[in-house]
Amino acid sequence: MITIHKSTDGKNGKVWVDFSMPAIDGCEFLYLVGWFDESDESVYLMERTANGDWSLSLELEAGCQYQYRFRTLDGRWLNDPARSPASGELGLNTSFIISGNGLTGSAGQPR
What we know:
Number of domains: 1
C-alpha cells in the first residue's frame, strides 16, 4: 500500500511516500526494490512494525513515475496487494506516478 504526504517545507517539490505491506508468515526481512530515480535500481530494508506489518518512508520527486516490488530475504518477489501489477524495467511490478494532484496508478486511475 502507498500513502502520499506533502513535504513539510513545501519548497523542494518532493513528497513523502509511505510503503507498507501486511505481515508475511516466515518472513524475517523484507526489502523494497524499485526504480526511484532514472538510472539505478535501489534496495531498501523495510522496518517491521509492532503488529508484524512492514513499513518504509521515502522522499520522492513529484511528477515522476516510480516502479517497485517487494522481495523477501529468500528471494521471493511480492507485488503490492493494494495495486494492480504493470509491466516495467523490473518485469511484472507495481508502478505509480506522483502528479500535482496526488497519486496516479499504472493504468492512469487516481488513487
